[in-house]
Amino acid sequence: MMSSVVKVTIPASTANLGPGFDALGMAFQLYSIVEMAVSDKTKIVLEGKELQGTPADKSNLLYQVAAGLFQDAGQPVPELSIRAASDAPLTRGLGSSAAAIVGALVAANHLAGEPFTREQLFAKASQMEGHPDNVGASMFGGIVVATMPDQDGASIPYVKLPVPKGLQTLVVIPEFPLSTEKARKVLPQVYSKQDVVYNVGHSSLLVAALAQGRLDLMGQAMADRLHQPYRAELVPGLKDILDNATDHGAVGAALSGAGPTILCFFQTEEEAARLREFVDRVMNGHDISYRIMILQPDEHGVQVEIHQR
Ligand SMILES: Nc1ncnc2c1ncn2[C@@H]1O[C@H](COP(=O)(O)OP(=O)(O)O)[C@@H](O)[C@H]1O
Ligand SMILES: N[C@@H](CCOP(=O)(O)O)C(=O)O
Q: Most buried residue, 5, 143, 159, 205, by most Cβ within 10 Å?
């Protein structure tokens, strides 16, 4: 009998864009894939260097998320054959856990006969991550503005914005990992009224600037007081880059998600060259190993192909 293999391609993402903590996400043309099929015995194959060290048994996040979906749908959890690969590095602030959750949910939902809509999968993924920023971008592509609802399980209100034409991203990816869990623990429990008002203003201005393609406002609008100042102690070079990137070719700069990746937006090749030189100088000054990637935005979000075997 023929059985179906579902192949899901998921874009990596950046969250926050500076002030939009837990609310803004943007998808990149940097992909991971998850292939899933019902099988006699669970087998998980993880390909490539980025997934090295990730468990290949039933404790794997992809299996756990897929099993949870079958349970939520009121179906027995089948044995699963899973193959996964990622061009995006893990624990660097490029949304790998969100991409894995989105990939496993979309794949398992297909195998279960599509019991849940995309909006419901988005809500599930956001509950699992605890915030909708990366999962929104991986699910829908482009720039996603979203917020967690007051009630558990309710749908997540969001708006997808196209990425302003010509906006490109240079990411500086340090070699050391930083788990999101650790980078959330350094944040305060309580903020001053001034800092909250500051972020509401900057995040609102940033969303409006993105919606109208006002790249001239991004440098100012991307300033943040809720997370970057606290996370700077975990990311050598961050403060320097945030303070000075716009003087060296950047349209704006931010910590990518919880870090340690740092992102700088730019438009022209000349800006990219100036930025590279600046970033090299800063990171070498801190004696940090890193790599630089130029990433284009993804506008499509998660993509699904079905194969018969
Ligand atoms: N394809 C995958 N398969 C299994 N687990 C994954 C996969 N991708 C990410 N993960 C899990 O997500 C963790 C990274 O999540 P996190 O600390 O939030 O960093 P980030 O999302 O910024 O990469 C990894 O340590 C791993 O446990
Ligand atoms: N809003 C979250 C985003 C975490 O993104 P990740 O890619 O680092 O997992 C946060 O800032 O904690």
A: 143
Q: Write out the residue range of the structural domain in which residue 101 sits.
A: 4-162+297-308
Is residue 135 domain-shared with residue 176, that is, in the same domain?
Answer: no
Name the residue of 54, 128, 231 to mutate for ligand 1: max ligand atoms within 8 A of Cβ.
54
Q: Is 92 a known ligand-binding residue? A: yes
Residues 183 and 129 in one domain: no
Q: What is the ipTM of this complex?
A: 0.99
Decide if pLDDT at 1 tops 70: no
Is the full-model pTM beyond 0.95?
yes
What pairing do the DSSP bridges indicate for beta strands 303-308 and 4-15?
antiparallel
> How close is the Cα of 95 to the center of ligand 2, in Å?
7
Give 305's contacts (C-beta < 8 A, 6+ positions apart).
6, 7, 8, 9
Whether residues 143 and 32 fall in one domain: yes
| CATH code of the domain covering residue 219 | 3.30.70.890
Q: How far is the CA of 7 from the centre of ligand 2 (A)?
A: 26
> SS3 letters for 64-90?
HHHHHHHHHCCCCCCEEEEEEEECCCC
User: Model confidence over 235-246: pLDDT tens digits?
Assistant: 999 999 999 999
Same domain, 153 and 27: yes
Looking up tokens 């995309």, which residue turns up?
A: 118
